[in-house]
Amino acid sequence: CDAPPPPPPPLPSSGDAPPPPPPPSSSDSSSSSDSSSSIPEMPTFNVPNPGPYEAATMPCRALTSIDTHDGFRMEIQKQLSPFMLVMHNFTLGTTLPDGSNKAYNFLTQVVDETS
């Protein structure tokens, strides 16, 4: 296992000619110009300030918050029929937005197909 690895296979060649040189760039033709002029400028947008984070609506705040918890959470849902769904949500140990550390939610959805 102390032997060196075998050499890579030779590349296929289409003759003995070397590859062509790269095309000249615009900076090569004008070497006397300033180098900072070749850097493109970033576009600017006239977007108004949306205001403070505290004034944002709850859906906007939810985009920036991370859904983490330090307790137990269980979400159970069961479709009882094609028109009825039942959901149970348990949360224990997590500090909720209202200050409590436990919650239970029961949700029932009934779909009416006559619309």
Give me some keywords for this one.
mainly beta
Give your account of this protein's structure:
By secondary structure, the protein is mainly β. It contains 2 helices and 3 strands. It has a 3-stranded antiparallel sheet with strand order 1-2-3, with no helix packed on it. The longest helix is centred in the middle third of the chain and has 7 residues. The mean pLDDT is 76.
Outline of this structure?
The chain contains 2 helices and 3 strands.
Q: Approximately how much beta-strand content do the residues carry?
A: 15-25%
Q: Regions with pLDDT < 50 over 5+ consecutive residues?
A: none
Assign an overall shape: elongated
How many strands? 3
The share of residues in helices is under 10%
Structural class computed from helices and strand pairing: mainly beta
The residue-averaged pLDDT reads 76
Let me know the largest β-sheet: 3 strands, antiparallel
Question: What distance separates the N and C termini?
Answer: 76 Å
* Tally of DSSP helical segments: 2
Instruction: Write down the Rg.
Output: 33 Å
Read across the widest sheet, the strand sequence of neighbours is 1-2-3
- Give the SSE order as H and E letters: HHEEE
